Description:
Elements: H1 2-13, H2 20-23, E1 30-34, H3 39-50, E2 54-59, E3 78-82, H4 88-102, E4 107-110, H5 125-153, E5 157-162, H6 177-197, E6 202-209, H7 215-223, H8 227-233, H9 244-254, E7 265-268
Parallel strand pairs: 1-2, 1-4, 2-3, 4-5, 5-6, 6-7
The structure holds nicotinamide-adenine-dinucleotide.
Nicotinamide-adenine-dinucleotide binds at residues 35, 37-41, 59-61, 84-86, 111-115, 134, 138, 162, 164, 209, 211-212, 214-217.
Amino acid sequence: MASEINAKESIAADFKSQTIFESMSLKGKVTVVTGAARGIGLALARGAAELGSDIAILDSLHEPSEDLSSWETLRVHIKYYRTDVTHLDQLTETFARIKNDLGGIDNCITAAGLVLDKPFHDHEWDECSKILNVNVMGTFFCAQLASKTMKEQKKKGSIVMIASNAANVAIPSRNMSMYTASKGAIQSLTRALAVELAEFGIRVNSVSPGFIATEMIMEACRRDSDLWNVFSSKPPMQRIGARSDLKGIVGYLLTDAASYTTGTDVVVDGGLACGHS
Length: 277
Ligand SMILES: NC(=O)c1ccc[n+]([C@@H]2O[C@H](COP(=O)([O-])OP(=O)(O)OC[C@H]3O[C@@H](n4cnc5c(N)ncnc54)[C@H](O)[C@@H]3O)[C@@H](O)[C@H]2O)c1
């Protein structure tokens, strides 16, 4: 009887213990973001920093595409680690340095990725291996290293992996069979890790963007000028996505506001997966 009454009391208070704004803060957290020297990763790193998190940026490029000292007004620590996600020795060393430099790891966003757009019959073994190495193996081992630290810390953690709408819908003018396979692997990995890591308080979700204007997309448009038209007219919302369209949802998945959300894939594609022109 007493425990029933306690249960009633806690049900009454559960949604008032924190405001939405409090639950969406990342103050005091450390977030690792891979592939964040530019593009989507950079924007997601900025989003997590805006929510108050310290940030470790990992990328194979020599330096980030923008001067991170301009982010000082956010009053968080931001450190850049030049690291190739396909080299486990480099990755292991970098994750150890992050723990040492920033005091731990609470969240991880995996955005490092490569795309390959060519007919299925023209795909070659080496280029396919490269895609799988970066998009699947790199993501897999970053999630492993991040979650090992989260488990050691005995604190809650959140991992968000960037998949792609390519895993949900194929567009006739784009030929991305191996890329699609790699992103389908990320969606499946999300579900497997959500189950395996739940007992440690670690949530794992993926986000599948549609066409988002970044260097990756612009490089494709430079090779094929018709593509810009495809990207901006195929989605039912009749526009290409912006990196700002992803910041909120990824930030949310990192925070306590998403504390009961794990193993899900959030599609951010202007409606493309539901139908296209
Ligand atoms: N732009 C889109 O329309 C779109 C759509 C769906 C999914 N995505 C995914 O979003 C992620 C980011 O894409 P983007 O458009 O910002 O691309 P981008 O090319 O602008 O950025 C990718 C970043 O990953 C880094 N990277 C690549 N290989 C690496 C490696 N071995 N080690 C460390 N870093 C490495 C690159 O240096 C680059 O900074 C990718 O996983 C991509 O597949 C992009």
